[in-house]
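Closing statement on the iron/sulfur cluster sub-project.
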Amino acid sequence: MNLLYHESEDWVDRAACHSVDPEVFFPVSPDGPGAMDVRRAKAVCGRCRVSAECLDWALRAGEADGVWGGTTPEERRYLRRDLLRAG
Ligand code: SF4
């Protein structure tokens, strides 16, 4: 499960990643062999009922590693930048 440190969040119980190897969500690199893990993680997030809550949490927490809410760290950096620009 990808949410070891966020068990106080009630949406965590409905996470689709409960039964998935956490290493899939935290590849060493998003390139090379890690790209397959990123695709696998995003596929799990794509069928997760709480992906919006997860992404919101990751953005608010400034989570710098791993796939959360179907986004990579780089994608979240762009999202945060866009949100800041939008005010
Ligand atoms: S969106 Fe992805 S990382 Fe977040 S709870 Fe769902 S499956 Fe886990």
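The chain is about 45% helix and 0% strand. With this model delivered, the sub-project is considered complete and its resources will be redirected to Aim 3.
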